[in-house]
């Protein structure tokens, strides 16, 4: 895949779509200062070039009763393909996990989870994370709030 060069209009389109992927083409065109047809063409080109890979619903974890967000750093005691494959597969299946990354750091995985409270976090650790074969160390970080995605109504 080759690198795509974006101009200022493409970047504004992307920015607006990241804020609201359900925005109409009419409103998107108005916000970025284009007429409708060129705006639609640019969006289709961004999709066709692989810059926009999809559209997703953003779920409010708070609305689901998951008021706490934790970042969990997981270190493995073995660094072979089989250990990582098993760990990745098990992490993907955990319903609390909302993001998971394999990292080149002091730890191997960075996992973002949504939970109700510390009791649920304890259960998550004991019954799920610690059951993954090859786990050497786990560190957790309680996130107080997301400063990029703060809801204006909070």
Break the fold down into its secondary structure elements and pairings.
Elements: H1 8-19, H2 25-32, H3 36-48, E1 68-76, H4 81-92, E2 97-102, E3 109-115, H5 118-127, E4 135-143
Antiparallel strand pairs: 1-3, 1-4, 2-3
Helix pairs in contact: 1-2, 2-3
Can you describe this structure?
- β2 and β3 form a beta hairpin.
- The model has no long low-confidence stretch (mean pLDDT 94).
- Helix content is 36%, strand content 20%.
- α1 crosses α2 (25-32) and α2 (25-32) packs across α3.
- The protein contains five helices and four strands.
- The longest helix has 13 residues, at 36-48.
- The protein has 154 residues and is an alpha+beta fold.
- It has helices spanning 8-19, 25-32, 36-48, 81-92, 118-127, and strands at residues 68-76, 97-102, 109-115, 135-143.
- The protein has two domains: 8-48, Winged helix-like DNA-binding domain superfamily/Winged helix DNA-binding domain (Arc Repressor Mutant, subunit A), CATH 1.10.10; 68-143, Lrp/AsnC effector binding domain/regulation of amino acid metabolism (RAM) domain (Alpha-Beta Plaits, 2-Layer Sandwich).
- It has a four-stranded antiparallel beta sheet.
